[in-house]
Amino acid sequence: MRTFAGLGMLLVLAVAVAPGFADSLTVTLVSITPTVSHGEQSTLVIQTQPGAACSGEITLQKAGGGKPGGQGNNPSGGRLPERQANAQGQVTWMWKTIGTAGHRNVRVTCKSGDQTASLDTGFDVGG
Fold first, then answer.
1. Cα dist. 15→2, 7, 78, 98, 102 in Å?
2. How far is Cα of residue 90 from the mean position of the Cα atoms in its chain?
3. Of the candidates 89, 87, 91, 62, which has an alpha carbon nearest to the alpha carbon of residue 77?
4. What CA–CA distance (Å, rounded) separates 112 from 50?
5. Do residues 76 and 55 touch, judged by C-beta distance below 8 A?
6. Residues ≥6 apart with Cβ < 8 Å to 97
7. Where along the chain do its domains lie?
8. Which pTM was predicted?
């Protein structure tokens, strides 16, 4: 019985210090420009694991809940290029907002090793 108790303690210790369990990848919002006018600069800052590779996509939310539009090279509905998180785990994107007024959905995805995490947020473009 004593052997099984010692083995149980060893297994608990191994699980407690196993890599990957306590350090799962997360992406959190630090800040986003909530509302901008056409032609103004938007800024998005996220927090994740240092060294993680992050990119994003911006989509224009169509009225009435239809499918998102505005995808392409235009940040009024386009891609946020891949960036590596700095030593503090932050990534910043800045872009000039163009396109029609409305709400933009933003999805940022970060990858580190075999882990992936995403964040959904958004901002508004005024007329």
1. 20, 12, 42, 50, 48
2. 10
3. 62
4. 9
5. no
6. 36, 37, 38, 39, 40, 41, 42, 75, 76, 125
7. 25-126
8. 0.73
Per the DSSP assignment, residues forming a β-bridge with 113 are none
Whole-number Å distance between alpha carbons of 16 and 9? 11
Domain 25-126, classified CATH 2.60.40.1930, yes or no: yes
> One digit per residue, pLDDT tens: the chain, 127 residues?
454 444 444 333 333 333 444 479 999 999 999 999 988 999 999 999 999 999 999 998 765 544 444 443 344 468 999 999 999 999 999 998 888 889 999 999 999 999 999 999 999 999 7
| Residue type (1 letter), 117 | A
Residue with token string 């600069």: 41
CA distance 44 to 36: 12
Strand blocks (E) in 5-114 = 28-32, 35-37, 41-47, 53-60, 73-74, 77-84, 90-96, 102-112
